[in-house]
Amino acid sequence: MRPAASPSGQPRRRPDLSLTLPPRKVDASDFIPVPRDDELAPAADPATGPPPEELERVRQLGGWVGGTVWMVRHRTTGRAYALKVLDEKHDHAVRRQLAREVAVLRTVEHPAVVRCHGMYERDGGELQILLEFMDGGSLHGHHIPDEHSLSHVARQVLSGIAYLHRRHIVHRGIRPFSLLIDAGGRVKMADFGIGRILNQTVDLSSSLVSTIAYMSPERINNDLNHGAYEGYAGDIWSFGLSILELHLGRFSFGENFYKQGDWAALMCAICYLDPPEPLSTASAEFRDFIRCCLQKNPARRPTATRLMQHPFISGLQPQQRLAVFLDPSAPSDATEAAGDGEKRFTELTSGSLAHFQKGHIKVEEK
């Protein structure tokens, strides 16, 4: 059938109702970094873990759709490790990805990054990944209202992020679940690389919390940044959202998203609503620190190295421990020390904050 003619006598053009997908800009962080040959050499002790037959399972630490995590102990030395046990459903391609990622992670050595000691493949196809054990567990569900203690946490995580970014490694999964702490107040990042691969293989509904709730707006909707996603800036957003959650004691965008499971509404909130903010009682330094991390425009988010110079981070004593946070029954002198730290924090001059803001603007203009 010929198309109907228009009043001018010309054939009418049928409107194109097809929807085309926007072009996707390939980001270097999409690819798993391939280590150099010299980096694939066996790591020196104590990086190399003991043989799996010398490990004794003590107790289960957690689990997810794809496997479980166990506390294990080396029978000879008594040293504790965390053993991530993956089920046999992963195909050969995923196994190769995991092996390559573990090879890279074994070269990562930083005080704020959980050490990876190696990967074993057992009979029946079961994969096991041996990791450093953190006896304090994750920071998920914790509330850290004291800004001095929160700065101590943020400083450690930022130093780890800066280290990874210098090595061209993007975490892509920063959230309170992936921030682990030990009894000494040391905070370390876990679940990068390996977690990203496993999230691609599990059912979507089971991984929404970890893959969407802490995503940056431009990662959820690439129309917001002209189709470009830059992984380093995405890590800063996830980091800022995690620190804010520890400050609030709840998910930054509201608990209703978790209770109702309305992930579409959550994605809209992340992309189109104003970023969440600290409590009105928070200091100007902390409020500005979170504002810097949660810039909707990724180009305006400072780098991890730059954030280390922010007054919220640089204005506090680095040796401060989380005594009050870790042990509520700590002696009164520890409580008083935390109070003194908060007093010193509030006495920081506004000039130092203005200096950081001015310096950051200069960086953006270059």
TrEMBL record:
One of its GO terms (molecular function) is protein serine/threonine kinase activity. This is Protein kinase domain-containing protein. Residues 1-54 are annotated as: Disordered. Residues 55-313 form the Protein kinase domain. It holds the Pfam family Pkinase. Signal peptide: none annotated. InterPro entries: Kinase-like_dom_sf, Prot_kinase_dom, Ser_Thr_kinase. It comes from Eleusine coracana subsp. coracana. The lineage of its organism: Eukaryota, Viridiplantae, Streptophyta, Embryophyta, Tracheophyta. One of its GO terms (cellular component) is cytoplasm.
